[in-house]
Design brief:
Blueprint: H1 6-21, H2 23-44, H3 51-73, H4 75-89, H5 98-120, H6 124-156, H7 158-181, H8 185-237, H9 243-273
Helix pairs in contact: 1-3, 2-3, 4-5, 5-6, 5-8, 6-8, 6-9, 7-8, 8-9
Length: 274
């Protein structure tokens, strides 16, 4: 998204498209066109009065207008469209780990409610602040979803990585005994090299494990923080939170995004070392 309002613009375009192209609209337009043409034909035959075709056209256009208005103001329709767009752009794929998926579902629920609030907001004095905050939250949760995917990948490989760690640790003990008993300089040198490689592998696996623990805690914190931000948007509607406080909220979100990016970078580094 290039601007703070781009997602909301996309939501509005989809709501308007839905209002125009829903099947009820097609039925009304079809019946209006058919009824008007039939009225014109029957009037030409002297069967019905001339005002009937105009009345048929007017009634059809009025029905279509009412349907269009109800579509763009229906909060359930708006929520359905927002949910679909968020799923497509921010949460496209389910995770294998059920606990992680539950966390992402919770984040999605907060995200969807926040976007629905922004979509319904009409107070121009705080609209820009709210849009900018929502844009930051979008990027924040997009990064959090990437983090969850990395954790999900790690958890799917956890047993293999643990087996590698156990094997490397056991092998180190065997090689250490061999090194103590070996007299040949060439073999001792090779044993040192092999031990060094295994030690680096164990250290890298420990680093991966510690980084993933940190990432899981950060993800949990993110979900909780998003819930707090959503509750603060409710305070806006109650006129208990002004633009300056919302500005501080954006600063907090920016700091959270930086922390997430740091963890993602660390995760990439430790995976390269394994």
């Amino acid at each position: 998204m290039s601007t703070a309002t781009s997602f909301q613009d996309l939501v509005r375009r989809n709501i308007i498209e839905y209002a125009f192209f829903r099947w009820e609209s097609a039925v009304i337009l079809g019946l209006t066109a058919g009824g008007t043409l039939l009225s014109v034909y029957l009037n030409a035959q002297g069967i019905v009065p001339s005002w009937l075709w105009g009345g048929s056209l007017g009634f059809g256009l009025l029905s279509e207008s009412l349907l269009f208005y109800s579509s763009i103001t229906d909060t359930d329709n708006s929520r359905m469209i927002i949910d679909r767009l968020l799923r497509e752009q921010y949460y496209p794929k389910d995770l294998k780990n059920q606990q992680l998926q539950a966390q992402i579902d919770k984040a999605f629920a907060y995200h969807s409610r926040l976007e629905s609030r922004v979509n319904r907001w009409r107070d121009t004095s705080l609209k820009d602040h709210l849009n900018e905050t929502a844009e930051q939250v979008r990027e924040w949760l997009k990064t959090s979803y990437t983090l969850a995917q990395r954790i999900d990948r790690y958890l799917s490989e956890y047993e293999l990585l643990q087996a590698d760690r156990v094997h490397a640790s056991q092998r180190l003990k065997v090689l250490e005994r061999q090194f103590q008993q070996e007299k040949d300089p060439g073999l001792r040198k090779q044993l040192e090299i092999t031990q060094g490689g295994l030690q680096r592998q164990v250290a890298a696996l420990d680093n991966v494990d510690n980084t993933m623990k940190q990432a899981k805690l950060q993800l949990e914190h993110t979900i909780s923080a998003v819930g707090t931000i959503y509750s603060q948007t409710l305070l806006i509607e109650a006129r208990e939170l002004d633009g300056s406080r919302l500005g501080r909220v954006r600063e907090e979100v920016a700091g959270e995004i930086t922390q997430l990016n740091d963890i993602l970078s660390a995760m990439s580094d430790v995976y390269q070392d394994v």
